[in-house]
Amino acid sequence: MADYNFQEIEKKWQDKWETSKIFEADTNQSKPKYYALDMFPYPSGAGLHVGHPLGYIATDIVARYKRIKGFNVLHPMGFDSFGLPAEQYAMQTGQHPAITTEQNITRYKEQLKKIGFSYDWSREVRTSNADYYKWTQWIFTQLFKHWYNKDKEKAESIEDLVKIFETSGNKSVNAVRDEDTPVFTAEDWKKLSERAKQEMLLKYRLTYLSETMVNWCPELGTVLANEEVKDGVSERGGYPVIRKKMLQWSMRITAYAERLLAGLDTIDWPEPMKEMQRNWIGKSLGAELTFKVEGKDLELKVFTTRIDTTFGVTFVSIAPEHELIPELTTPDQKAEVEKYVETAKNRSERDRMSDVKTVSGQFTGSYVINPFNEERIPIYIADYVLSGYGTGVVMAVPSSDTRDFGFAKHFNLPIIPVQEGEGSDITKDDFDPKKGTMINSAFLNGLTVPEAIKKAIEFIEQKGIGKAKINFKMRDSIFGRQRYWGEPIPVSYDSDGMPVIFKDSELPLILPPIDEYRPTEAGDPPLGRNKDFVAKNIELSTMPGWAGSSWYYLRYMDPKNSDRLVGKEEEKYWNQVDLYIGGAEHATGHLLYSRFWNKFLKDIGYVSSEEPFAKLINQGMIQGRSNFVYRVKGTQKYVSYNLRKQYDTTPLHVDVNIVNNDVLDTDAFKAWRPDFAEAEFILEDGKYICGSEVEKMSKSLFNVVNPDDIVAKYGADTLRLYEMFLGPLEQFKPWNTNGIEGVFKFLRKLWNLCHDENGKLNISQAEPTKEEYKALHKTIKKVEEDIERFSFNTSVSTFMICVNELGSLKCNKKKILSDLLIVLSPYAPHIAEELWSEFGNKDSILKATYPAFKQEYLTEASFEYPISINGKMRVKLDLPLDLTSQQIEETVLSNDQVQKWLEGKAPKKVIVVPNKIVNLVI
Fold first, then answer.
1. pLDDT tens per residue, range 568-583
2. For the packed helices 716-725 and 792-808, what is the interaxial angle rounded to 10 degrees?
């Protein structure tokens, strides 16, 4: 039998691809382009496990397929190399994060190259390289230099805004700005000091400095984004997180909220992913209403989508962070308010929104007056109110909102029904707050909800106590992080403490060396340890992890450009990413921020498309398949799976790498850990059978499978095919090596089709038969359809069927096998290249022409009719499909075999069912 030496073959072709630079892309205007991209990996010390390459393999299949189909393909790879894990390791060991990051990248690249990906490594980018983060810093400076013009729905230069202020003030300026921005005239502007002018401009800039409530993690010494906090602790490390006010850099992503929403309708993304972004952006059409505080010169503004329910307001609740709490708190409530606020404000916003069971609040002692009916209403502090959404104040209507209802019941507050009819009772399962007609609502009585909303808005606008308003749940993004291993923010501060942005010629601002990677003794970020930064009053915070990954897809287009973040021609040619594959967990982080920055860069003329990623696929997770042994309690005896119920046992996770098809290598188990050295085994049929369970792939569960081990044992082509064969790309599926042998055998069958028993090439130049062409063209059709719709798992089974059919036909025809290799090559590139070369081709299979599917090979010219006599099938006749019923009858009756069965008798009846059967009755 021919020897399929996959290790030698795969190393050979990986070296050839690298030497020939065959995957390097250029801006070739004569070809259509295709840009295939994987989500930027963070290089961790653990390296890749078999779950990581899943999306990479799918992208690579498409990239190789498009290349053979005549496209100019850009398929790059790089590393999101700034980040908290490397910094935490540096804090523990004192080793510079750049060293561990470089080691991790080297490990990743070794693993990726072993799998045979068609990456253009000449375009590799790393976010921690200064020639890359120079442009991340440049984007920051551009955001600082721009404001958002709502009339034109685009960013414009801050210099243009200053000119407007100088000539006409800001009354006519329709901009996205801070809520507390005062109205001023041109004369007012001219009278302002330079510091006051800069403070005013910060209220308009797209990146700005302001006091903001943040998630502060003392243990990590940094601010965390909402998505990095879960159940009051940091997602990484599980450290306590508190809420506190800090002076922070923020990005005005809210300026782009409407465009971010509208853009979702123009891109081919999974609907659940788009819905996550819609919910995160959270557009609400409603009204802003003013409540006057009783006995004080204070007002509380609320945003509500249900202005029609104002007659049902029985209390007002405010966020624990609200700035007016000290003024609203009466002396007799002071101690309780302070106690409640201290506890409530340290819960993350995510926890406060998701915890619907806990009811907590504290009365301030003050009241507001309901502007609709002059009723006196108590003011409570409640942690379910968020300072960042709306105004941080909620007008509570217990009869129309379940959370308000729970609060009112808990504190024994009035509940006034304002709707009647089907679905209007909040205590019933069929409750729908938008159903029914209005009651107990004076001039709104009898109206439907939509009618009442419209009339109530007219009422508040006429009285001057409110106005119609659109609100978004999404908040501006906090941009600063109090850590070392990130992009320095290119800002210094003047003697007045005002930010001064670095000039383009001063970029990059290089991340400086420091002696330790912890905050200073004074509590400043780690960069406070650098004397030069402190002396020059440079910003000590660094950028968040999402900064560098928000535009990397652009740098791949033109990675060596020192004059622009991307050249005009290169960006115009490569344009959008045609296929982007990565995890759904990035929905409200990386993917949203990338869209935001892309839209901004389009506004200022550096990008030609509104959206960065035309097509997005979220690959599912490959889960670990854990194995278990069963220890008899109090002993070192281990019972095989099917005997475990006969004993009192404890299940223990065991390393899956010493288990094969659920059979434990008992010697390897005894050598695995010292405490197992004296293990004894109770076997079944001479084997120790392990239990199994599907869980997350994790080192702690001993179910991590290293792709290097699979490649060493079976080859990269087997790994690639098998990962696709596990199931649809988007689905979660367990890793199970039990089926990998079948894929490996398929590749050996293919190899053996092309070689004789002595391992010599055995290829025929003869013309293929109809059956051989049929087997090939069925495969061409199915695989091409599958790739175009990203359904890779069914292609693998199609290849297997084809090779089995060709094997049965003893087919070794060059015409058939050459085309089959081209179709297979995106999936199993190494074996395809080797056989293609053995067939006498000088160029790589990547330069071949993809075979055209021909329907004629699947169209049958004849049909094998079963000929029945008195209901029993006696003969089969292969007849042309174009015969008429009369011609079929004549041909059948003239057949010698049929005549033999008729025994000279003339049939009484001949029944012809075209393309099915002929029945003779005698």
1. 999 999 999 999 999 9
2. 120
